[in-house]
Design brief:
By secondary structure, the chain is α+β, with helices and mostly antiparallel strands. It contains eight helices and ten strands. A five-stranded antiparallel β-sheet has the order 1-2-3-5-4.
């Protein structure tokens, strides 16, 4: 009998693997609705939906392996990373979905959220003041007008599967929607910027590296406290706090 593998679990949702079936349990059915619709619209490989019975969504496992994970070693050839970049470009060039996504929050909303989070990080001694200040300055470059694209919204490298240097599928679409394409790219190479050139080679032009770095700082600043509250460790080697530490003083 296949064992039950807990892929990820926290208070909002959990993903389990049993053999070749993934079971996503989500308390918010609106997220599952978005995930199902996004997978049907995305012009890139996605998992086959086997069945849905709220609060559970069952999808088939994908062939191949991921390129790694945040805080762990990255794998894959330069061609595999370039293939991932090409898949992202295909997604970002696709017709827009009819809803806003996580990467599509307004400049005003993001600025307010970021400033409040920075204050909390300092007030509760989660991170040193100079580290927060430095990254808040870098993050400013992301707070600019952008052209909406079809974005995944949570494009960690652990969500992209490749086999023989080809993308076989992208998982976890619950944050998808209209958003800033560079947010996806920054999320994808977070903690693994040594592969950025390969990703850009596949993605093509229209890459502003300052904005990529800005989104990396912004995303990491916003993630530290929620990750701690959910039982994860953003201070682990290679994770969000190390990403923030990698930013050089101005």
């Amino acid at each position: 009998m296949d064992e039950v593998e807990v892929v990820v679990a926290h208070s909002e949702r959990a993903t389990l693997r049993v053999g070749d079936v993934f079971l996503k349990v989500d308390a918010d059915q609106a997220r599952i609705d978005i995930e199902v619709e996004a997978m049907s619209l995305a012009p890139v490989p996605t998992p086959a939906i086997l069945w849905r019975k709220p609060p559970v969504l069952a999808t088939a496992a994908l062939p191949g392996t991921t390129l790694g994970r945040l805080g762990g070693p990255a794998t894959g050839s330069p061609a595999a990373w370039a293939a991932a970049g090409a898949a992202l470009r295909t997604l970002h060039d696709a017709p827009l979905p009819p809803w806003q996504g996580r990467a599509g929050r307004s400049i005003e909303e993001l600025t307010k959220e970021l400033d409040a989070e920075c204050e909390l990080l300092v007030a509760h001694d989660v991170l040193p003041t100079d580290l927060v200040t430095r990254n808040r300055q870098v993050a400013e470059a992301a707070l600019r007008p952008w052209t909406p694209a079809f974005t995944h919204g949570d494009l960690q490298i652990a969500h992209v599967f490749v086999d023989a240097d080809e993308v076989t599928g992208i998982i976890d679409w619950s944050e998808a929607g209209r958003g800033d394409a560079l947010y996806d790219l920054a999320t994808f190479i977070l903690g693994h910027e040594e592969h950025l050139d390969d990703v850009i080679a596949g993605y093509g032009t229209d890459i502003d590296l300052d904005v990529i770095h800005a989104w990396s700082s912004l995303r990491s600043l916003l993630a530290v406290r929620p990750l701690i509250e959910q039982g994860f460790d953003p201070f682990a080697p290679g994770c969000e706090v190390d990403v923030l530490r990698s930013v050089s003083p101005a």
